[in-house]
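Anyone up for a design puzzle?
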């Protein structure tokens, strides 16, 4: 099924039951191609209104609450309905940049089963993407990446056909053997979410209803797998499917259950066919990119930013809190009025009318502004460029540094590079966000010689403490395949060098600098695992790692 045919089917399914399938994850950069898709969404004959949600929407506009202006004007409490007050189809532009608070509220709204969501994911780089809380709840996925405009206009979806399918849907059933097959398929693809299986089953029933059938067929299930399941597959599970020989079907398969007016299914052959459908449904690199996004979100705690601290002057606004003005905090006037407004009638009555006061504000009404100030993050690479593998290892590290910098426009990342070679480590790239400067510094950078691991950790710790004094949040990434053999004074003494490296690892831990040890040896090295424990950092074995794997692990 082509991308545009897949989009047409996804839109028809969405129109029938937007709340039942959760919604549509539409991936593609802003442009003419995506405009065609969003225009088709706007023309869908939904059974509920469409409402656009801004990433900067506040809780009053989204959830509703007392309206201070209307309350003061009418002299009685006036409540303002929020965007989620009535069932609707929500359109979320720039969904990949939605703040965690909005993601949580939208996820709760989808769980109530009254709303559908169309998430427009404009992720441009690996490591970005839709938050997992929303991706897990949206039953349909279509990617427009790399697509050109269709040769002809998308056909208009008939409201009559959608209404007929909507009425037919409650009577559509799925045979038990197909349900079991769907669960088996999800396990084969490494999908552990129950929501994914439920959404795929719902999609298959809607496709059957659109085709004027009351029983889900194998073809309906195959199309549902393309829309709801394929993008959730784990890349490792798909690779294992490609490499492992498939077992032949059993010689004496159990008798299938009675299915009136349908033929008995060859479940083994159908399972293999659906696995192939899932693998062929998406572009070759999309599973790797989605997997990199999941890994990056997990590695950085789903934020990817520096340390956050509460403040009262600058930064991202947080919900205001009750408190007394102290000369340092700012009063949130709107929140204060909103808190005082519902009590005006009662307070005027108690004050005997109080005609000289337009508004009676008590101490308990005061709300103070709060902000969250997020510092820049600096990721310090410590790369082992010693020995015969220096060229390949250093080349991948260079690629990872450039990938991280390419993402710096959307995150507050700086990167620095410390190279281990010869008798001492060298800070070849101070913390920077300049891609041009980075390429200039990295071009032709040599390697070879011993492994001054202790010197590298010392240089990285000094760089991290300097960055922290400048208000940044540092972290260290050690990329190596062995143990140090050069001491701090430049002598070749492996036992002493190892002791010094362990001492500096403990110093990094004491300084509270987080980190990760990437073991790129062909076999995991126990010494590096021990070193990571002393640093209180993550240990990630990455044999035959390339630049994208390194960047994904670092987030």
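Challenge accepted. My sequence:
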């Amino acid at each position: 099924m082509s991308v545009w045919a897949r989009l047409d089917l996804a839109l028809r399914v969405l129109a029938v039951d937007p709340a039942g399938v959760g919604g549509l994850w539409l991936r593609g950069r802003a442009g003419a191609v995506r405009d065609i898709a969003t225009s088709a969404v706007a023309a869908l004959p939904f059974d509920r209104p469409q409402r656009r949600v801004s990433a900067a929407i506040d809780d009053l506009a989204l959830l509703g609450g007392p309206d201070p202006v209307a309350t003061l004007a009418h002299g009685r409490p006036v409540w303002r309905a929020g965007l989620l007050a009535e069932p609707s189809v929500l359109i979320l532009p720039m969904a990949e940049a939605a703040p965690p608070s909005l993601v949580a509220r939208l996820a709760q709204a989808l769980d109530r089963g009254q709303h559908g969501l169309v998430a427009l994911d404009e992720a441009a780089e690996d490591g970005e993407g839709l938050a997992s809380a929303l991706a897990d709840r949206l039953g349909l996925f279509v990617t427009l990446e790399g697509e050109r405009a269709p040769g002809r206009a998308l056909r208009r979806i008939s409201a009559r056909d959608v209404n007929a399918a909507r009425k037919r849907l409650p009577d559509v059933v799925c045979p038990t053997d197909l349900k079991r097959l769907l669960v088996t398929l999800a396990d084969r693809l490494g999908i552990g979410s129950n929501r994914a299986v439920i959404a795929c089953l719902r999609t298959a029933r809607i496709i059957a209803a659109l085709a004027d059938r009351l029983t889900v067929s194998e073809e309906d299930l195959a199309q549902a797998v393309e829309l709801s399941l394929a993008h959730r597959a784990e890349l490792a599970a798909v690779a294992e499917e490609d490499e492992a020989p498939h077992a032949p079907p059993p010689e004496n398969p159990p008798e299938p259950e009675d299915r009136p007016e349908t033929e008995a299914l060859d479940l083994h052959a159908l399972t293999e066919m659906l696995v192939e459908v899932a693998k062929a449904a998406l572009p070759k690199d999309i599973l790797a990119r989605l997997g990199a996004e999941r890994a990056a979100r997990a590695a950085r705690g789903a934020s990817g930013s520096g340390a956050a601290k509460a403040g009262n002057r600058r930064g991202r606004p947080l919900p205001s809190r009750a408190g007394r003005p102290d000369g340092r905090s700012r009063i949130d006037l709107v929140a204060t009025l909103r808190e005082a407004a519902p009590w005006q009638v009662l307070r005027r009555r108690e004050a005997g009318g109080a005609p000289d006061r337009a508004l009676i504000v008590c101490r308990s009404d005061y709300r103070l502004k709060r902000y969250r100030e997020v510092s820049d993050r600096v990721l310090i690479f410590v790369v082992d460029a010693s020995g015969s593998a220096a060229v390949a290892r250093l080349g991948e590290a260079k690629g990872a540094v450039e990938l991280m910098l390419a993402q710096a426009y959307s995150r507050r990342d700086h990167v620095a590079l410390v190279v281990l070679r010869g008798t001492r480590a060298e800070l070849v790239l101070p913390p920077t966000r300049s891609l041009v400067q980075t390429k200039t510094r990295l071009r032709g950078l040599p390697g070879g010689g011993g492994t001054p691991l202790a010197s590298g950790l010392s240089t990285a710790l000094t760089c991290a403490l300097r960055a922290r004094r400048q208000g940044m949040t540092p972290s260290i990434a050690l990329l190596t395949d062995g143990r140090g053999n050069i001491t701090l004074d430049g002598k070749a003494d492996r036992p002493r060098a190892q002791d010094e490296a362990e001492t500096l690892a403990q110093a990094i831990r004491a300084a509270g600098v987080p980190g990760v040890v990437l073991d790129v040896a062909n076999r995991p090295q126990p010494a590096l695992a021990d070193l990571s424990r002393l640093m209180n950092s993550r240990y990630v074995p990455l044999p035959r790692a390339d630049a994208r794997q390194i960047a994904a692990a670092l987030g």
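A detail worth pointing out: The chain is about 45% helix and 15% strand.
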